[in-house]
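Input chain follows. Return structure tokens only.
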Amino acid sequence: MLGGLTAIVTGAAGDLGNAMARQLAENGAHVVMWDIVPRADAADAIKRVRAHESDAEYAEVDVRDRAAVDEAIANLEQLDIVCSNAGIVEAQPFLELSGDNWRNHLDINLTGCFNVCQAAARKMVAAGTKGRLILTSSWVGSIPWPEITAYTVSKAGLNMLVKQMARELAIHGILVNAVAPGIVDAGLAGRQLREETQYAARVAKVIPLVEPGSPEEIAAAVVYLAGPQTAYMTGSILTLDGGCSLFQFDG
């Protein structure tokens, strides 16, 4: 389905990004994995993707570093799909929220996506490529959740970034959409489930479909957004949250 296309996945050493990279490779795309994790520490993640595409690439790129992003994109011969997925979440109650926590979330989750997507879009426009920009949002981008103010605000900003880019890039044939996972038992949320008892207690009450989602389910939605089925879709936030946003907070 995606044969002959090149896709960047940021945060590709993590659970969610790695699932995206694997499924894009399974569907024929040439995958370029980006992460800040040193190559040696990402060996297993790289191996999992190369099991589906032996030529999959890996580069250490910090999405906060615009010069590094520009250079890495300029070095690509072709670029058709971008999965701007790199992100962080670190819980702090609002009254204890530090300036560093606030800045880190905005720098990585929002400005990082801006850096990657603008640089990629400029390359696509210059090449006449009708590409796809797919961002990773969250169900809490429009619904407040205790103790993650910096994260929810960064995802709310990302949702508007999706719509703004979609509006301005449509004339170039570039489609911009996002996946908005709910509570996924992997990566950032998986760590919270294991390490933060308050978070785990809340989660037990709020998923109408009971179980947390999986990285594979979110990655399948990314492949859908990258494929021909969504050629008339732009500016959309595709929510996969098991019903969390239906407000089942009392069981």
